[in-house]
Amino acid sequence: MAYTRGNLAVKEKTATRGQNPRYRETTKVVTRRSPLPIREKLLYMVTILFCVGIMGGLLWQNSQLYDIKRQAFNLNTEIQNINVQVKELSIQKEKLEERIPEEAAKLGYVEPVDEGVHVQVPNSTTTENQASDVATVR
């Protein structure tokens, strides 16, 4: 053993200075997280379920609104189509009304001279509600 600066209890480190050691001792700090308590887990789960429920409700409400708007749009287009058909049919009705006198003349009908139409009702078919035997229509 060599004398090192007046102390004989010190080991010599000459053999390990120049060489790499075969293994290197490393320490790794491992921190373990403590598990969450059951109450805290339940709180998180209830919070998440609440948020999912609110989002689901909003989606359902928006889908209902979309359906209502779509139905209103379809009804508006149907109303426009029906209005077009009504205009076409009213034009066709006017054309047919203009042809009535011509067709009646062809068939031999004539316009009455006096106003109103007199209808004779026989006594055997009268009911209690009829007031007279002759009805006048104007």
| Largest sheet: number of strands, sense, barrel closure | 2 strands, antiparallel
> What share of residues is helical?
40-55%
SSE order, one letter for each helix or strand: HHEE
User: End-to-end distance, in Å?
Assistant: 150 Å
The order of strands across the largest sheet is: 1-2
Which regions are unreliable across 5 or more consecutive residues at pLDDT < 50? 132-138
Radius of gyration: 54 Å
**Oligomeric composition of the shown chains:** single chain
Give the structural class.
mainly alpha
| Counted beta strands | 2
The number of helical runs is: 2
Strand content: 5-15%
| Average residue pLDDT | 82
Shape: rod-shaped
Could you name the key traits of this structure?
54% helix, 6% strand, disordered C terminus, transmembrane, membrane, coiled coil
Characterization of this structure:
With about 140 residues, this protein is mostly helical. It has a domain of about 60 residues. Helix content is about 55%, strand content about 5%. It is built from 2 helices and 2 strands; from the N terminus they run H-H-E-E. It has a two-stranded antiparallel sheet. The C terminus is likely disordered. It comes from Paenibacillus motobuensis. This is Cell division protein FtsL. Keywords: Coiled coil, Membrane, Transmembrane, Transmembrane helix.
What topology does this entry show?
Blueprint: H1 14-17, H2 38-107, E1 117-120, E2 134-137
Antiparallel strand pairs: 1-2
Structure at a glance:
The protein is mostly helical. The chain contains two helices and two strands.
